[in-house]
Amino acid sequence: MTFRRARFIGLFAIALLASRSSFAGELKDPYFGEALYYAYQDRYFEALQRLDVEITQHYGVDERDLDSLVHHIDHAEFSVGDFELHYRMHLRAGRAIRAVLEADIDEQVRAKAAFRLARIHFQKGQADEAAGVLANMAAPIPS
Question: 0.85 exceeded by the pTM?
Answer without folding.
Answer: no
